[in-house]
Amino acid sequence: DIVMTQSPLSLSVTPGEPASISCRSNQSLLRSNGYNYLDWYLQKPGQSPQLLIYLGSHRASGVPDRFSGSGSGTDFTLKISRVEAEDVGFYYCMQALQTPVTFGPGTKVDIK
Amino acid sequence: EMQLVESGGGLVQPGRSLRLSCTASGFPFEDYAMHWVRQIPGAGLEWVSGISWNSVRMDYAASVRGRFTISRDNANNSLYLQMNNLRIEDTALYYCAKDMSGGFAAAENWGQGILVMVSS
Question: Which residues of A touch B95 (CB under 8 A)?
């Protein structure tokens, strides 16, 4: 199975400041079609997870442009250019390159 | 409006069975892969199973393989998870999720989840 790790596991951010979360896999997530099968999700308190970024760097529909994803192979980053109060919650990366699909442990983001 | 509604959860004794259902609406169900993802309250997300648009590809987490069976009925816009020989550690909130493709790429939309509690 592909193992996903995230860092940090907890992050406290001042509103308006940037934030960054790292996700790493123990195998490359790059498929021969050129896409990295790595997604980012946000689970806000009391809500279902929502897709933020798919295939490494593509913003999902309705996601604010302050969210961006980058990386390739085994190292990926989710960046929030200016954190807002509504961004609090748990952020998860997930690989869909091969089954079983696996998630990272999650990063808790809160506001200072 | 796209909707995924789970049903069939509840309290069950260890060793018994439950069948979860997910009713989809607002999109062409037959075109998309579907997933079941679970979450123990206060813990992270665990992928349980996925099925391609045409049911050709199905797979399971090791923790449920041989006990759970995923299926879909494209004519009735429904996804199912037959859970047999349930264990206490299967207690979780189970989410139905729609992939963004016919295969496995990203869980684009999620239901509200249904609670399964396994206890004697």
Answer: 48-49
**A49 chain-B contacts, CB cut-off 8 A:** 37, 45, 95, 107, 110
Residues comprising chain A, all counted: 112
Q: Where are the beta strands (DSSP E) in A8-83?
A: 10-13, 19-25, 38-43, 50-54, 58-59, 67-72, 75-80
Report CB contact under 8 Å: B100, A48: no
Q: What is the pLDDT of residues A27-54, one digit of tens each?
A: 999 999 999 999 999 999 999 999 999 9
Q: Determine the average pLDDT of the residues in B11-33.
A: 98
Burial class (CB in 10 A: 0-12, 13-18, 19+), A62: exposed
Considering only CB atoms, B112 lies closest to which of A37, A39, A48, namely A48
Instruction: Look at residue B1 in the predicted model and tell me its pLDDT.
Output: 93
Residue ranges, chain A, pLDDT below 70? none
Of B46, B104, B110, Cβ closest to residue A103: B46
Taking contacts as CB-CB distances below 8 angstroms, the residues of chain A near B59 are 99-100
Q: What percent of chain A has pLDDT over 90?
A: 100
